[in-house]
Task: inverse folding
């Protein structure tokens, strides 16, 4: 069984009548989102695998929701965010709808958990702030790519154990894709850079999403927290480079890599991982970017170059992953 299906041994809390239901969606949120919770009762027979996957989905949706909520507050005086484009619509207007839709996604996941008498995941209390529209568009592309990659993995995992929830997860993926297309277009990037989105493992998704928060402010999930891989070049940017980068530079804890032969494992679209040699000196690293990557790729430091799936690469990850905007 691949590691993405063994997300973690969920701590399934059987609750008494005092358990907290998911927050009720306001009429304003429902109107802004274009709809509320799916009609009909949520499934009540989730497997342990389905529950653990939905607890991770709850964690990710919590952070997405808080991220967009914070952006609306922090950029309310930024003309680049609030001014209308030629079509009469501002980034602020679209993000207001995005934030509401993330609230609906969160409430949907939580309703499924509570219908199975399982605890929902508490919010992180400290989300890293966004201070400009350019920074927002850069980070929004990353957080949405993480969410898309995670939901692909979750959907694949629950397809055999909990087919009744596949419809809701696949419906969320398509909406996340529309969000990302808007963020890319607003940054003057091609909105549809690839024919396939990139699936990532659930462990990778957990580590990537933690970069948007102060991790100590979050509830801890029983997933591996990996050493951080910080890409220093190409720098974080809303706009993709005019030509794909030929190399990346990065920093990593020197203790993680001492004495090892190193590679960067690259995951992009529906392809097997590819590898380039990495050189790290005193925590500063460099590696080539393989040809053929497009859109957003995910890079992880490893000491092998034979893993052929993102799941097996995850088990061999020394640090990372990091998102790299290629095109």
Result:
């Amino acid at each position: 069984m691949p590691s993405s299906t063994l997300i973690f041994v969920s701590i399934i809390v059987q609750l008494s009548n005092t358990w907290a239901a998911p927050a009720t969606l306001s009429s304003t949120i429902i109107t802004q989102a274009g709809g509320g919770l799916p009609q009909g009762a949520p499934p009540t027979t989730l497997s342990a695998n389905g529950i653990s996957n939905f607890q991770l989905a709850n964690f990710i949706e919590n952070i997405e929701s808080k991220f967009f909520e914070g952006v609306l507050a922090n950029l309310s005086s930024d003309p680049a965010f609030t001014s209308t484009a030629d079509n009469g619509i501002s980034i602020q207007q679209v993000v207001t709808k995005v934030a509401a839709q993330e609230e609906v996604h969160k409430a949907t996941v939580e309703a499924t958990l509570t219908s199975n008498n399982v605890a929902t995941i508490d919010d992180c209390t400290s989300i890293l702030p966004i201070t400009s529209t350019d920074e927002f568009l850069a980070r929004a592309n990353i957080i949405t790519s993480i969410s898309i990659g995670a939901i692909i993995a979750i959907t694949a995992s629950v397809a055999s154990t909990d087919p009744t929830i596949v419809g809701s997860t696949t419906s969320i993926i398509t909406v996340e894709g529309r969000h990302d297309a808007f963020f890319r277009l607003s940054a003057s990037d091609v909105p549809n850079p690839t024919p396939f989105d990139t699936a990532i493992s659930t462990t990778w998704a957990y580590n990537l999403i933690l970069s948007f928060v102060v991790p100590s402010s979050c509830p801890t999930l029983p997933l591996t927290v990996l050493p951080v891989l910080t890409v220093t070049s190409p720098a974080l940017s809303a706009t993709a480079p005019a030509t794909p980068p030929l190399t990346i530079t990065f920093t990593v804890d020197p203790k993680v890599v001492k004495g090892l032969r190193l590679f960067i494992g690259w995951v992009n679209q529906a392809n097997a991982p590819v590898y380039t040699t990495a050189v790290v000196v005193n925590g500063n690293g460099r590696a080539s970017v393989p040809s053929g990557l497009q859109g957003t790729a995910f890079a992880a430091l490893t000491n092998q170059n034979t893993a052929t799936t993102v799941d097996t690469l995850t088990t061999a990850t020394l640090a990372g992953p990091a998102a790299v905007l290629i095109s």
User: Anything to note?
Assistant: Confidence is low (pLDDT under 50) at residues 1-21.
